[in-house]
Specification:
By secondary structure, this protein is an alpha/beta fold. The protein has two domains: about 240 residues, P-loop containing nucleotide triphosphate hydrolases (Rossmann fold, 3-Layer(aba) Sandwich), CATH 3.40.50.300; about 90 residues, Winged helix-like DNA-binding domain superfamily/Winged helix DNA-binding domain (Arc Repressor Mutant, subunit A). Helices cover about 35% and strands about 20% of the residues. Strands 5-4-6-7-3-8-9-10-11 form a nine-stranded mixed beta sheet, sandwiched between helices.
Length: about 375
């Protein structure tokens, strides 16, 4: 006779927020009597200390949202590096400016990437930021990474609760990406429940929780409009950072921070040389049209014969750009428009004019006129 097998039911995890004992109205009353006679400095200190000035305080939730492939995961990793070191985030290339951070530990719960990919990205960014082994060790010690790509959605909330015991007040907690907590961002009840859990976590730990979200490449052009279309998301976070990328690879960060003011928009670019995101001038935020790229082409070949080739570094110098990544974006865009073609020359890529590119340089009329395109259509073509 065979042994009887006892099959235990699978563990059921409830993601609904726990029902708390009902409180009386009086328990919610706000006391203002002890604020009478306070100095302005004392009044300012009624708010929790910032973790990232202009973006988030202890106990708050920040939503960072953009389309896929817009480098938002690299952006929040860069934020993590700055908090771990205690240096300003989004400083200029010369190191000035940026947003002050309070040095703290960083905890990353990545719901998308495997351990191998997380190790690669962290090592790549860390090595580009500093070659000093002591500094690399310090950065490593400041981070706690968790790869949850193969964890069931319901179990993520259990692990998030477990994380509370390791998080100290003022720490930075990154959760990437929101859709793994619930796949359909249009289902308000489930999304609201997820945000309630994350906000409770932030309050319980006094950490700044940064949640990464992305939306499909469709719909309105403006990232902030995409978020505003989902009321639960736009209303649930203390700070909303809506990101869109223009044709030159510049991130336009629209900031809506309830407990800060004065920084509603920041333009930044990823610097491939040091793996930092750096603030750039407003001139990079101007609309990019076909006429703009026509001028770029003239600037590049005005001192060359049409059969000459150029490299990224030559283009960077010719265009007087602040980093190589900016030149790379322009060259790739013109290659996609069939104005240029590239080929490998040793270890470097070189760019040559295509037949269409030569025609543009020889034409007395701007390309926009010859194509009979309106400004809107030009921008649309470049952003595709």
């Amino acid at each position: 006779m065979s042994a009887i097998q006892i099959i235990k039911p699978a563990l059921q995890v409830n993601t609904e927020p726990e029902k708390k004992p009902r409180r009386t109205l009086e328990s919610f009353r706000v006391n203002h009597t002890d604020t009478v006679g306070m100095s302005w400095e004392q009044i300012d200190n009624l708010r929790p200390p910032f973790v990232v000035d202009g973006f988030g305080r202890r106990g708050e939730l920040m939503l960072c949202a953009a389309e896929s492939k817009s480098r938002k995961s690299w952006l929040v990793q860069d934020l993590g590096f700055c908090v771990a070191i205690g240096e300003p985030w989004l400083a200029k290339e010369n190191g000035t400016g940026g947003f002050e951070t309070a040095q703290a530990k960083v905890h990353v719960m990545d719901l998308e990437l495997s351990q191998g990919e997380m190790r690669f990205r962290f090592a790549k960014a860390r090595g580009n930021r500093t070659a000093n082994i002591a500094e690399q060790n310090h950065l490593t010690d400041q981070f706690a990474h968790y790869s949850l790509d193969d964890v069931q959605t319901l179990d993520v909330f259990v692990l998030l609760d477990e994380l509370k015991g390791t998080v100290a007040a003022g720490d930075l907690v990154i959760v990437d990406c929101l859709y793994r907590l619930h796949p359909d961002g249009n289902e308000a009840k489930e999304i609201a429940s997820a945000f309630t859990t994350l906000k409770d976590f932030a309050k319980a730990t006094a950490a700044l929780v940064v949640v990464v979200d992305h939306f499909r490449k469709a719909g309105a052009d403006k990232a902030k409009d995409r978020i505003a279309g989902t009321f639960v998301k736009s209303a649930s976070a203390s700070t909303i950072v809506a990101i869109q990328t223009n044709a030159e690879g510049v991130l336009e960060m629209s900031i809506d921070a309830r407990t800060f003011h004065g920084n509603d928009k920041v333009h930044a670019r990823f610097n491939v040389d040091n793996y930092r995101f750096e603030t750039v001038g407003d001139d990079y935020a101007a609309p990019v049209t076909v006429d703009t790229f026509t001028q770029h082409l003239f600037d590049l070949w005005q001192s060359h014969d049409h059969g000459a080739t150029v490299t990224k570094k030559q283009a960077q110098a010719k265009w007087n750009l602040d980093n190589l990544q900016a030149a790379d974006y322009r060259l790739k865009k013109m290659e996609g428009m069939k104005w240029l073609f590239k080929r490998k020359d040793g270890k470097a890529w070189t760019y040559s004019l295509s037949g269409r590119g030569v025609e543009i340089l020889q034409s007395a009329k701007p390309l926009a006129h010859s194509l009979a395109l309106g400004e809107g259509k030009q921008a649309e073509m470049l952003m595709e």
